[in-house]
Amino acid sequence: MSPLELDRDPAWLSREELDAARGRLPILYVDAVPVRVDDRGEVSALGVLLRLDGEGRVCRELVSGRVLHHERVRDALLRHIEKDLGPVALPRVPASPQPFTVAEYFPTPGVTPFHDPRQHAVSLAYVVPVAGDCAPQNDALDLTWLTPEQALDPGVQAEMERGHGVLLRQALAHLGRAV
Amino acid sequence: MSPLELDRDPAWLSREELDAARGRLPILYVDAVPVRVDDRGEVSALGVLLRLDGEGRVCRELVSGRVLHHERVRDALLRHIEKDLGPVALPRVPASPQPFTVAEYFPTPGVTPFHDPRQHAVSLAYVVPVAGDCAPQNDALDLTWLTPEQALDPGVQAEMERGHGVLLRQALAHLGRAV
Amino acid sequence: MSPLELDRDPAWLSREELDAARGRLPILYVDAVPVRVDDRGEVSALGVLLRLDGEGRVCRELVSGRVLHHERVRDALLRHIEKDLGPVALPRVPASPQPFTVAEYFPTPGVTPFHDPRQHAVSLAYVVPVAGDCAPQNDALDLTWLTPEQALDPGVQAEMERGHGVLLRQALAHLGRAV
Amino acid sequence: MSPLELDRDPAWLSREELDAARGRLPILYVDAVPVRVDDRGEVSALGVLLRLDGEGRVCRELVSGRVLHHERVRDALLRHIEKDLGPVALPRVPASPQPFTVAEYFPTPGVTPFHDPRQHAVSLAYVVPVAGDCAPQNDALDLTWLTPEQALDPGVQAEMERGHGVLLRQALAHLGRAV
């Protein structure tokens, strides 16, 4: 979720309250790597969002967002996928709660491969096959489907912020693909 | 796969050759727990096969079978699901090769919770959502869909052979359900 | 972590602030199932804490506690294990961040198998082998080591609160044991 | 395990019998990525073996070998680690049977990222912390400990055969490291 969009979110917390909490507690997130799979379950493409960052540069991101109070993790995944890919993406949220990794985002770069200048966020990361039509929503400029090989391209990786390039590669590794 | 069916399998190995290999090498298997999931990915039911065992008693089993020479693990899963649930089960084979557990079946009971009098088999176990119509095939008498609660019923568990009752509970645990 | 102990914690948040956050955000936790393993990595015993609950009844719990702001998940695991098992438990915190499950504790019982009357907590659950001397700390009355078979005893399960009995069984399932 | 060493193995199967089985059945393997971890469980180094391949070129490999008939997976891991790293490596074999991936080695390159000219092998892959002294055994020329950064070096990757470079990166991804 981009900074802009976060502020527009129908808020359980006011922006001031969220800012206060962010200075005090790790914030629980979910990250989703949307994928296209064939009939054998083999991944053919991975979905990456294009946005403008705060300084007007194009950057690439995975689907990502906060888990709300009293919200199940699987409902947070569904909500953020719908928010970013639209209402007919037909996501197949994993039946098991076991994430493929846990990404720890720190405000200070270098503590982990993941970085979020706004907050200390801890994110449960899942690969989510989507079977329906996907279209970029809100402030996303585009949604790109990359083959596993394209996802490893240094140019693509360089445009991914906050460590999402690493997360995409970790997802590919979990999928049994070359990284 | 039942003993009878195994022998009927279009064989890469003759029965004599398979019997010889079984006395010398661990045999690679896949086990699948077929599940029905709702739109949120929550499991609503687990599929269990009813068969007659060698002595004419009704027993319950999961989908299970050998991985063939030069066969991908995901293709073995698809083949055994089609063999047991029919051609229109529409299985969603996991995109990742990581199984939820590895079940080691020994000819001697008690070495592990899993037992196979015919052989030392090592099985990669996956939960596989199926979205289509399922019908028992070949020598299966019936296919029963159990709720997670029903799957824990001691009567059901008592009818499951070779440790498949334990495997079903391990699958439920992996799915985040009470066991 | 018991309610009493939580309040005694050297606080990043005052008690009032934590109470306010608990009403607004899911709180990130870690749960640890301490185990004894033999030289082959096989689990021989699982560690369970005995405490008095708010009404003076004996109850059993796993090691559990909050992840603090700017704290790595692995450091939270180490801190809570030291707090509950003492400074020479020699825990072997997993090298991978992938938890065996994610337990979602809701204030309303029945939403998931996990329940916490104080808050919506989401907990990353790990099995942690401990190689050193363990002794109950603070308000724990005792630390009991249970064999995998004893851990399944209905009497033991009945004394475990907040769904920790289910979590213990899910850990056993992940360890390849009968449940 | 190198081709030479395989032939020297105290055989459950004669070499002829093993060769025959290899032409008929997938052979079950274990792959181990030996790692050094600090007190917090963080990986500091990964162990890679140096050998001469059949044509006298230096190549790098992970610990790898067959699971024998009637052998538990964890005992196969211990046996191959002792065979390659010596008797006092003090490996901490994982308590759970869940591998971080399953590597499918095909005689034909390109089917998967993994390749074995001798056979169709399916390998359960584990990260195994070793706490003791390690020394290269048998036909290994050396054992090198690489930092996570060094393990990603293209020169190192180019010397790893059969897809072990990919497996090393998949292990790093599972460990939450940049890849």
TrEMBL record, chains A, B, C, D:
Listed InterPro entries: DUF4916 (IPR032582), NUDIX_hydrolase-like_dom_sf (IPR015797)
Entry-linked Gene3D superfamilies: Nucleoside Triphosphate Pyrophosphohydrolase
GO molecular function, one term: hydrolase activity
Keywords, ordered alphabetically: Hydrolase
Signal peptide (residue range): none
Pfam family, one: DUF4916
Protein name (database record): NUDIX hydrolase family protein
Organism name: Phycicoccus endophyticus
